[in-house]
Design goal:
Elements: H1 3-15, H2 25-33, H3 39-48, H4 51-66, E1 69-73, E2 75-78, E3 83-84, E4 95-96, H5 108-116, E5 125-128, H6 138-151, E6 156-159, H7 162-171, H8 176-186, E7 190-191, H9 201-207, H10 214-226, E8 230-237, H11 243-260, E9 263-270, H12 286-299, E10 305-306, H13 310-313, H14 315-321, E11 328-331, H15 354-363, E12 367-371, E13 377-380
Parallel strand pairs: 1-11, 1-12, 2-5, 3-4, 5-6, 7-8, 8-9, 9-10
Antiparallel strand pairs: 12-13
Length: about 400
């Protein structure tokens, strides 16, 4: 079915749905017309919309932007350390400096060796984020990025969040503008979306008081976009925030995107309650998770992509999310990422081969498309059939790091 046929089918189903509450008909019409919804509309969707209606509306927006495609890439993670000077209450990953014996701290050589383990493998991206420590300063990271580029020039470096940059720029006594310039020159290609959490100052004060503010997070991304670079954005939902805080968070992102156009994808991240100071909270339900994806897809009309981070959701729910506006499942990754597995995520050993991802996407009725970090399409996998009982000749499994 072509994109236009799929869109027509979704429109017909949406328009003939007689179960839509009267108070939601105006929002429904805005989505049909491709018009921007307001904060008040978003609140109505969160509070009143049936899940079936949210799915149809989000799927319509998704189809208009990306057809039936679901994207993935081949990437690996480097997490320099899980020891951190900050004490975010929701974090199960980090260890305080006084408990640094319980964590890890990679040297530059360690990290370069991780990169070299992927020599000859068809990965396109290295994703670098971790804890914040004094020894990982601006000079250290600039040298690391340069050495990675020297070793493998074509490898896309997606590295560090504004939480890390805010600290290392301050420690180096440079302005955000100067710091961003030096990071660009060192070889970083894009920024991940982490560290956003919730922008609202009162909520941020309660869950991560000592890290950079929401305004500072946004400012670093703004400068990054002004330098001609792209980045992602996240939200941490499902803890003490309310719907109004989620909408405020997305509004600030939408406004910055109107200004710069530099964001690529929005990634809702679910709070997990294992082994952290907020473990007393009950995690959100699957219904609430799908609602978050759908409303974000409808509200963030100027974002091209909505991503579900599959190690957080688990494979089955990642499949379901594709019916709620999600068109990206991140990457193959491997067991080098521990941020969510340590917090009690569904995937304790998060690794998927190309075969796994392609099969998962196909089984959800979507078209699997391999991309690079900037969403250049590398391969449409819809016509490739993996042999069930023999290794597919074009598939090279990613190595497992010990």
């Amino acid at each position: 079915m072509t994109q236009s046929n799929t869109e027509a089918t979704l429109l017909a189903a949406l328009m003939k749905d007689e179960s839509v509450p009267q108070e939601l008909k105006a929002v429904q019409q805005k989505v049909v017309d491709g018009a921007r919804i307001s904060d008040e509309d978003a609140m109505l969707l969160f509070e009143k919309a049936p899940l079936s209606l949210l799915s149809m509306m989000a799927d319509l927006v998704r189809t208009r932007k990306n057809g039936n495609k679901t994207f993935f890439n081949r990437n690996f993670h480097i997490e320099p350390t899980n020891v951190c000077i900050y004490t975010c209450k929701f974090c199960s990953y980090s260890r305080l400096i006084k408990h640094r014996g319980d964590g890890w701290e990679y040297t530059m050589e360690d990290m370069l060796n991780i990169v070299k383990k992927y020599d000859g493998q068809p990965v396109t991206e290295v994703h670098i984020v971790g804890g914040v420590l004094p020894q990982y300063d601006l000079d250290f990271y600039c040298e690391l990025f340069r050495k990675i580029k020297e070793h493998r020039p074509e490898l896309h470096i997606k590295a560090l969040t504004p939480v890390e940059y805010h600290y290392i720029f301050k420690k180096a006594k440079v302005t955000y503008e100067e710091g961003v310039r030096r990071i660009v020159e060192s070889g970083v290609d894009s920024l991940p979306g982490g560290g956003a959490e919730i922008f609202d100052p009162e909520i941020r004060e309660q869950i991560c008081a000592d890290k950079c503010t929401g305004d500072q997070w946004l400012r670093i991304h703004e400068l990054w976009h002004e330098a001609g670079k792209r980045s992602n954005a996240t939200i941490l939902y499902g803890h003490i925030e309310k719907y109004s805080h989620r909408i405020d968070h997305m509004r600030r992102l939408r406004e910055l995107q109107d200004k710069t156009g530099g964001f690529q994808t929005f990634i809702p991240l679910k709070f997990r309650n294992k082994d952290n100071e907020m473990a007393y909270l009950t995690e959100t339900t699957v219904v609430e998770d799908m609602k978050m994806y759908a409303v974000s897809r409808i509200y963030l009309d100027n974002f091209d992509h909505i991503k579900a981070y599959w190690p957080m959701l688990g494979r089955h729910m990642a499949q379901v999310s594709m019916s709620f506006g999600v068109d990206d499942l991140d990457g193959t990754i491997d067991d080098t990422t521990k941020i969510y597995s340590m917090a009690g995520s569904e995937e304790q050993n998060p690794a998927m081969s190309t075969y796994d991802l392609v099969t998962l996407i196909k089984n959800a009725g979507r078209i699997p498309v391999e991309r690079d970090t900037l969403y250049h399409e590398l391969k449409d996998w819809s016509e490739d059939a993996f042999a069930e009982d023999t290794e597919y000749k074009g598939y090279i499994p990613l190595p497992t790091l010990n």
